[in-house]
Amino acid sequence: MDEPHPPALALSISPAARALISQHTPFRFHEVKLGGAASQAPTDTDADSGRGASTVLEPFLPLSSPSPTSLPLILTPPRPSDPPALVRTLNDPRVAFSLVGPPYPYTEEIAREWVDFKRKAAEEAFAELAQRAEEELARREENATGVSEASAAPWIVDGLPVGNIRRADTGEWVGDFGLPRWNYEDTPDEVERDQLLKENDAKEAGEPSIIWTFGFFLNPDYHGKGIMQHVLRTVLSTYVFPFLRADEICGAAFTENRASIRTQEKCGFQAYYTFTRQISEARGGGIKEVTNLRLRRVEFERA
């Protein structure tokens, strides 16, 4: 018997609220048909995408194509059909042994739990944006002018609620991109590190002094195509610096993972610190060197 899929994203946002969210954030919306024999690509209004399909509203972050021949990519919340692709990717040695986490071997159950967790986080983030949009629309109606006193300032969210790299044309899952706050692994003293973590975590989203970090992995079928460099550069140029207003972002990779380090360097990151860490027995054990890299807004804008 097949294991059940996680629930699909559940959002109900009026067209007017969607337009307002897209005015104040980099996010856009489309409808996708999921389930049955349906394609996961955005729907056509008159298309019948197959028996058992259901249409859901999905937010996404556009990723501009660097060239006409590049794959059309977007960042979305997870979809119920993603767990098998996650399991295949995170159990592939080309990916698994380049990561510190998540658990390895990676099971279907863990994948479903992760997809459900990220779905709930996305629903919460966009429900808050929808509420803000409806309140703004109500104020505009009360003013009878169509415009409230609110400025056009960005409506900041914490982190990145859309982290699944996906083909925009077919809906195929391509990889994962996360944007948490920095964990200060470059600070050896545990007391100092704990204090820095508390201070960074306590800051309100949108505060320029927050230090962010990121993690990523790709389906090995898409390795060597420049996809992650494109994703990282686009997220930096359209989201991290202009939207989250960040002044600095840090990255990391095993020093032996030259592909990951080169990807970051091509986006402007510079290595500044190395340390060693113990690797779990499941991932081969032993000790590996980690390289930390960082990029400041002024350097990125100057490049």
UniProtKB/TrEMBL annotation:
Residue ranges crossing the lipid bilayer per the database entry: none
InterPro entries named in the record: Acyl_CoA_acyltransferase, GNAT_dom
Domain of life: Eukaryota
Coiled coil regions, renumbered to chain: 119-150
Keyword DNA damage listed: no
GO MF terms held by the record: acyltransferase activity, transferring groups other than amino-acyl groups
Pfam families: Acetyltransf_3
Keyword vocabulary terms for this entry: Coiled coil
Domain (N-acetyltransferase): residue spans on this chain: 73-270
PANTHER family xref list: ACETYLTRANSFERASE-RELATED, N-ACETYLTRANSFERASE DOMAIN-CONTAINING PROTEIN
Protein name: N-acetyltransferase domain-containing protein
Organism per entry: Rhodotorula paludigena
